[in-house]
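User: Before I run my own analysis I want an independent prediction to cross-check against. Here's the chain; please return only the structure tokens and, at the end, one sentence I can use as a sanity check.
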Amino acid sequence: MKQFAVKNWLKHQHYKSRMPPWIKLHIDLLDDPSFELLTGEEVKTLIKIWLVVSKGKNVNGELPKIDKLCFLLRKPKDVVEEQLKSFVDSGWLVYCEQQSSNSLA
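Assistant: Structure tokens:
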């Protein structure tokens, strides 16, 4: 399975070299149609993904491998895989190679 990363993580989080005690939720989410279209369960998962990424030492927003992510989200693998693909389709996540190429642009 491909590796995923949170889109624009560096832009939205300013802690670069340590684990923050909190993450930012930008007020722009209230006016974002793609956020509004998420189900309650998807919003919960997305926020938990942001929390997981903020705990990691990777500053590029990369998610852990799928098995670890499933454990951290407390969800079965098939559900997590489906939600990850949905988040890519709706623009909340990118494949890691996309994140790298976007950084170079």
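Sanity check: Helices lie at 9-12, 33-36, 40-55, 66-73, 77-89, 96-104.
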